[in-house]
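Summary of Year 1 activities. Much of the first year was spent building the evaluation harness for sequence design. The harness presents a backbone, in tokenized form, and records the residue chosen at every position. We chose the following record to illustrate the format because it has been used consistently in internal testing since the harness was completed.
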């Protein structure tokens, strides 16, 4: 069983479920076996649990069958950013480039400089 997110839904009764950016499945309303009470159409962003079947003849995507709509989700800004970060490569900073403390880099008079001034 796979878990995905509903990315689109048509009023004609079908939609697209994505597990990852490149792993996409076709979902038809006849393959939905369980929905939350009173839900006629699944909202975009709903979590979907489903099994996989091969694509129909001429179909572009494999089918999601025995689908269960677990709950509609509404993500906060931080959760949305975390979801986006899953699909974006960000190189990690090198430890060798550590910032320095500006107070320590300022020239301070040494004991030898103090003796010369006397």
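For this record, the design step produced the sequence shown next.
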């Amino acid at each position: 069983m796979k878990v995905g997110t509903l990315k689109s839904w048509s009023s004609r009764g079908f939609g697209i479920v994505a597990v990852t950016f490149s792993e996409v499945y076709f979902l038809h309303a006849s393959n939905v076996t369980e929905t939350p009470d009173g839900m006629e159409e699944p909202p975009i962003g709903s979590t979907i649990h489903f099994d996989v079947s091969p694509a129909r003849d001429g179909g572009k995507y494999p089918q999601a069958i025995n689908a269960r709509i677990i709950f509609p989700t509404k993500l906060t800004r931080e959760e949305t950013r975390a979801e986006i970060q899953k699909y974006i490569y960000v190189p990690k900073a090198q430890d060798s480039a550590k910032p320095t403390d500006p107070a320590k880099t300022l020239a301070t008079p040494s004991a030898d400089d103090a003796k010369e001034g006397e």
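Strands lie at 2-9, 14-18, 24-28, 32-34, 47-53, 63-71. Quantitative recovery figures across the full test set are reported in Table 2.
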